[in-house]
UniProtKB/TrEMBL annotation:
UniProt KW keywords: FAD, Flavoprotein, Oxidoreductase
Protein name (record): FAD-binding oxidoreductase
Residue ranges of the TM segments: none
Family: Belongs to the oxygen-dependent FAD-linked oxidoreductase family.
Length: 466
């Protein structure tokens, strides 16, 4: 479809309304501004509006509506599908809106829509407080929260979105609204799991909990030959663990020269990672069984600051590398599921890729499935299939590995997925309907109300029916 032509004058008038910069293709910082975390994404927007506050966001939404430009909304820029940028459209970029304010007495944090988890942990941990975030610190708060949010505190304190108190956003008609349990309740329901479909979030208010500053952690590496036996034992451990424990397993080659000698560098391996959100002594004791499920190749478990643990995986996911990630909720990790996980971990074309198993449960299941839009409370585990590679010539082999793995693993699943690991959104409509089921209609009704023309369509999209 041909894009509408926008007069320079119109752009200048728009620019004059902004406090932040408006970046265009000829500007020196254009290439930096259009780059996102995933090096597979190479989009050329017409304009990038670096918003400084809600007023800029309102102006940007109004300009997009008037000009009919496609719109992308950027928080932390970490969505694997690269939905934070678009070709020939307007990027509403909140990456300069990273303020975080903490009220330690009320145990609340106010977080701007472009903040990362590093920003949040930095401020909240100064008071020994935290809200559940993601496991890599430079991921954006906005995209992660709107899609649900699973991190190291999930079994004790639930999803990130379960900890929302209120959300400030600019809707498609340029209106600034607050959504909470007390006002715009249906919108608040939809924002907790329905993604970026209903507007541009300028601020989140989160509940905080006492965590750390030191926590007991587990990060133990085993040889791939032990995967089947260890996962069986791990499953039993998880079934009886306290809610303070949240863990995940990742399997692959994990060829880290600093961690492993030449004898095992390219051998299959896996790690069990997690933390205990209670006291360090009891936590160390409770995590101890995970460290002795076989002979470890390496064990970095121990007591450390929670904020450091939140950053421990950062260097494994550098900006600009090539990524393709998808997911599937699993009914359980049965012997036959473990057998297939072992197969797919070994079959990865890239040594940097992993098959991940996230423990779900605890506080996540305290919230009724109808209390928020999030659609993944029913399953005990989430399978993440992460292709991570460097060579562009290996693109199709890596993408195919992820898709083939998911096709095979569907036998252990109802087919629903975690929307924050969306591949390239190639099967959006089917995925959304399978994942949300009957809830999809309720989300569509909300979309009709707040974004009937689908201005916010570059996302895990809920289609309006108007
Ligand atoms: C290295 C890495 C680690 C991850 N770890 C975890 C994890 O531990 N737990 C987990 O749950 N997920 C995790 N994820 C997935 C993550 O939740 C998603 O990639 C999420 O989309 C990232 O949010 P972002 O703001 O950085 O994304 P962006 O790419 O900036 O945005 C993605 C989408 O979110 C929406 N959006 C962003 N900002 C706003 C806003 N201000 N208002 C309205 N809509 C907005 C838009 O629809 C946008 O297209 C991880 C991803 C990466 C890359």
């Amino acid at each position: 479809m041909a894009q509408p032509t926008i007069e320079d004058k119109q752009i200048e008038q728009f620019e004059a309304t902004l406090h932040g910069d408006l970046i265009r293709p000829d500007d020196a910082d254009y290439d930096d501004a259009r780059a996102v975390w995933n090096g597979m994404i190479d989009k050329y927007p017409e304009l990038i509006a670096r918003c400084r506050g809600a007023a800029d966001v309102i102006q940007a939404v109004e300009f997009a509506r008037e000009t009919d430009l496609p719109v992308a909304v950027r928080g932390g820029g970490h969505n694997v599908a690269g939905t934070a940028v678009c070709d020939d459209g307007l990027v509403i970029d909140l990456s300069e809106m990273r303020g975080v304010w903490v009220d330690p007495d009320a145990q609340r944090a106010w977080v701007q829509g472009g903040a990362t988890w590093a920003d949040v942990d930095h401020e909240t941990q100064s008071f020994g407080l935290a809200t559940p975030g993601g496991v890599v610190s430079d991921t954006g708060v906005a995209g992660l929260t709107l899609g649900g949010g699973i991190g190291h505190l999930r079994c004790k304190y639930g999803l990130t979105s379960d900890n929302l108190v209120s959300v400030d956003l600019v809707t498609a008609d340029g209106e600034f609204l607050t959504a909470s349990e007390e006002e715009n309740e249906e919108l608040f329901w939809g924002l907790r799991g329905g993604g970026g479909n209903f507007g541009v979030v300028t601020g989140f208010e989160f509940d905080l909990h006492p965590v750390g500053p030191d926590v007991a952690t587990c990060l133990v590496f085993y040889h791939g030959d032990d995967l089947a036996d260890v996962l069986s034992a791990y499953r039993e451990y998880v079934d009886s663990a306290s809610r303070e424990v949240s863990t995940l397993v990742f399997a692959g080659e994990l060829p880290d020269e600093e961690l492993f000698g030449a004898d095992v560098l390219y051998e299959p391996k896996f790690a069990i990672m997690g933390c205990h959100s209670g006291g360090v002594e009891v936590g160390t004791g409770e995590l101890a069984p995970l460290r002795g499920l076989a002979d470890p190749l390496a064990d970095f478990s121990g007591v450390m600051p929670y904020a450091d643990f939140q950053r421990i995986l950062d260097e494994d996911y550098p900006d600009g590398m090539r990524y393709y990630w998808k997911s599937l909720y699993l009914d359980g990790i049965t012997e036959s599921a473990i057998d297939r996980i072992t197969y797919w971990a070994d079959a990865a074309p890239s040594p940097l890729s992993t098959v991940d198993i996230w423990q779900i449960g605890g506080a996540i299941t305290d919230i009724g499935v109808e209390e928020s839009a999030f659609a993944g409370r029913h399953a005990p585990y989430l399978l993440g299939v992460e292709a991570n590679w460097e060579d562009p010539q290996m693109d199709s082999a890596n993408v195919e590995w992820v898709r083939d793995c998911l096709d095979d693993m569907r036998q252990f699943s109802d087919g629903s997925v975690y929307l924050n690991f969306p591949g390239f959104l190639e099967d959006n409509d089917e995925t959304m309907e399978t994942t949300f089921g009957a809830t999809y209609e309720r989300l569509s009704a909300l979309k009709n109300e707040y974004d009937p023309t689908n201005l916010f369509s570059l996302n895990q999209n809920i289609k309006p029916t108007t």
